[in-house]
Design brief:
about 500 residues; alpha/beta; Spore Coat Polysaccharide Biosynthesis Protein SpsA, Chain A; Rossmann fold; 2 domains; about 35% helix
């Protein structure tokens, strides 16, 4: 269905309302009546999506439209039930296809208050957020006072706290179905790939969070009447828990990439368990000198090396924001073509952290880098271990595919085991002066979590166990190998 822009439209955003309805014949009229008159006068369109109800929800919507020629209302009925998430997908595609700027999700069962719809729209119209959620938990005691059953209240709080702890977010409620989105934010996420079930609401939060969209909350009143709840509480809790665990695993590098995250923008990893920390420890043991940071990204690792007294020159194919301020010098170059001509002189240390697996010919690059070593200098390298238990098991099960990060990083051209990498080092006429190993980046699970939480304590225990395993059996449990390489 195609909508025309109303004659009253100007610079104000075009706002649409998506009313998802299933067996809502007894409540739909009241929901539409409760929309504030000033809002209705300015709204671009209202779409009622009847998800193949077994009652006469669709007919009630059509009768409501009769005699209200000025009301911008469309009522559609799906030929088959698409599910709660599938119904929303239809509405969001409608909003995108028709050039709306903002779309509000409202339920047809009357559980959410149409009277406060402007509270959700206003922050979006002002450009203060990409999504606004109505929260029944924002005001202490309001949810219970509004009739939320105790078991739902407790479940809501427990799940929301769990979801916040794993994602680093701080939403007062993850489970409200009263929401408004800027359509340009929806365009940046792959919502069509999300669940058709009730956990769609959780997946859309994770999708927005993954691409850096801002989410605001506004308090809304709580209404519980005699509406029928179609949510299986235990199945829903299981599904949303799996969603956030899978999301966190993807952030760690396990699982398919999250659309919108730039896999080339590598984070600086200051954790004491990380490869960056070990490389910096090696740099910290030496007299300050010239350091060449190969594949320096935004220069945060180089800045940490400068803090140790070193003079740092960075190389990367893109000059990212802030890199010029963090480093002493920066040279643009594609390392697939070797060391760029702009690199001058020799260096006491050359750092190739997480870079050799990204180039087409790592042997050629490492050989060239060795020519820039000052007498007594060293090349410091970190590479992922393809023989780690995770890629081993994936490959053995026939499930090889690329991930967001980690050994299966979608930008990796080459894969190494300890033996294959050390053979490559020998061909480059370098020798291994020192080697080390680090375990999986398990500690990223507790980012944003309360330091006292059970999540943090469990992560710490798992991290210690993984570190012990990686040192005991490095070829099986080592996530990355680190080398200090010198000239013979």
């Amino acid at each position: 269905m195609t909508l025309s822009t109303p004659a009253t439209a100007s610079a104000a955003p075009r706002v649409g309302v998506l009313i998802v309805a299933y067996n809502a014949a007894s409540t739909l009229t009241a929901v539409l009546d409760r929309l504030p008159a000033p809002f209705v006068e300015t709204v671009d369109h209202i779409l009622v999506c009847d998800d193949a109800s077994v009652d006469d929800t669709y007919e009630v919507g059509l009768r409501y439209k009769e005699g209200r020629e000025t009301l911008p209302l469309t009522v559609v009925r799906h030929s088959k039930n698409l599910g709660y998430g599938g119904n929303q997908k239809t509405g969001y595609r409608w909003a995108l296809d028709n050039g709306l700027d903002i779309v509000v999700l409202l339920h047809g069962d009357g559980q959410y208050a149409p009277e406060v719809i402007d509270d959700l729209v206003t922050p979006l119209a002002r450009g203060e957020a990409d999504a606004v959620f109505g929260s029944r938990m924002a005001v202490r005691g309001a949810a219970r006072a509004g009739g939320m059953p105790i078991y739902k209240y407790v479940g809501n709080r427990i799940l929301s706290r769990f979801q916040n702890s794993l994602t680093g977010m701080s939403l007062s409620e993850w489970h409200s179905g009263y929401r408004a989105y800027r359509t340009d934010a929806l365009r940046d996420i792959d919502f069509d790939s999300y669940s058709d079930d009730f956990d769609f609401d959780t997946e859309i939060i994770l999708g927005l969070h993954a691409v850096g969209k801002s989410i605001a909350e506004v308090p809304i009143p709580t209404y519980y009447g005699d509406e029928i709840c179609y949510v299986n509480g235990m199945a829903y809790a299981r599904d949303v828990a799996v969603d956030v665990v899978r999301f966190r695993a993807r952030q760690m590098g396990f699982g398919t990439p999250i659309r919108g995250v730039d896999p080339g923008a590598y984070d600086f990893k200051p954790s004491p368990f990380s490869s960056h920390a070990r490389l910096l420890a090696w740099l910290g043991r030496t007299t300050p000198g010239r350091v060449l940071d190969v594949g320096c990204s935004d220069g945060q690792f180089g800045a940490a090396a400068r803090a140790l007294g070193h003079t740092v020159v960075g190389i990367d194919m893109i000059k990212r924001e802030g890199v010029g301020d963090r480093l002493d010098d920066f040279v643009i170059g594609d390392l697939n073509h070797g060391v760029p001509d702009g690199v001058q002189g020799t260096f006491q240390h050359i750092v190739a952290g997480d870079i050799l697996e990204h180039v087409l010919d790592p042997e050629r690059l490492l050989t060239e880098l060795a020519r820039y070593l000052a007498p007594g200098g060293a090349v410091l390298v970190s590479v992922p271990n393809f023989a780690h238990w995770y890629p081993r098991s994936r490959t053995a099960l026939g499930r090889f595919d690329y991930d967001q990060r980690g050994p299966f990083d979608s930008t990796h051209y080459r894969f190494f085991t300890r033996r294959s990498f050390e053979r490559l080092v020998a061909r480059c006429d370098l020798v291994v002066a020192e080697r080390d190993v680090v375990g999986a980046p398990i500690d990223v699970l507790d980012r944003g979590a309360d330091r006292r939480s059970a999540v943090v304590k469990a992560v710490a225990r798992t991290q210690r166990l993984d570190q012990f395993a990686s040192r005991t059996w490095p070829t099986m449990f080592g996530y990355q190998f680190l080398y200090r390489l010198t000239l013979p």
